[in-house]
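Section 5.1 Outputs to date
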Amino acid sequence: MDELTIDSIVVTGKKNRFSLPRIMSGVEKFFMGCDTNYVTPQKYNLTVQMELSYWHDYYFLRSSQTGNTMVIQSDPSVILGGYIYYSILGYGAVWNLNDLGIRAGKTNGTSLRQSLVVHTAKFFAEYYTFNSGKGAEIRSVSKIETKGKDRAFHGLDSRCNGFNVIYMFNNRHFSWPAAFGANAVQRKSCGSWSIGFQYNHQNITFDKDALPDHIREDIDSTLLFTKVNYHDYSVSGGYNYNCVLGRNVLFAISFIPSIGYRRSNITEAEEFGRSILNNVSTDLNLRMSLFWNNTRMFSGLIFEAHTYDYRKDKFGLTNTYGTLKYLLGVNFWRKPRPSN
């Protein structure tokens, strides 16, 4: 009779090589394997992380026909929320505190931002979705004096979703999770080149009737649009560096420009109708962080900036958004020590 055990199945005295514990151990070793002289890998299965962040959006509109420009700056958003990680998988949700108690249509439109992330030694992957805009200010308009006048604007709405994947070439020595995921600790300074793929979808609407009267009456009509809807597919490549400042203290920087294909659809002011443009996109992604992490608890700052640029024959739009995050996290459920 075959012998049955809890941990494995024995058939005629031989262990089954495809037991679930063996498979899971192999998967984790493949994704999180590293040189422990450079990186201390995550020692816990579960991470709970609080986030307090400050978001800002910036829009630069320009007319290729007249050279006139308009600059719109969103009201700053204070965001509170958090993430929960199980091993390499994480889910995050944050809410805009500025929207509390404000009626619909007058908020920054950023009530909820969500993301699903995968942090491993080899690669980082993220899916995200958020809204921005609504509460904003007209900073400047060509040939119109705005100083000392009403500049409030609630006619801008931007909805964004997308995903990106980044692969680290020097993943045995450089740790992306240590820099931006806080589920590992970098022990020696090290850098790595990276390559990635990004998809970004933005749908930006503009209500010219919401402009202050003195701007709406005199503005260059070639600066106006009703909607911009575009899809970006791009390949990115850049360099990332982790600088160990002291025991458990890390400063990291990542600069990853991208180039790709953009499928755009714009509805401009009525006199220009609607046009579709397929063109090359060039975007910039910058991240910096400063972390303290003793493997059980961590605390740190992350700065991120993203720039998306749209151009066509008569009209251009650059949308830049940045965020400064403060993170505080605790790890639970320690993993068993690896057997020799």
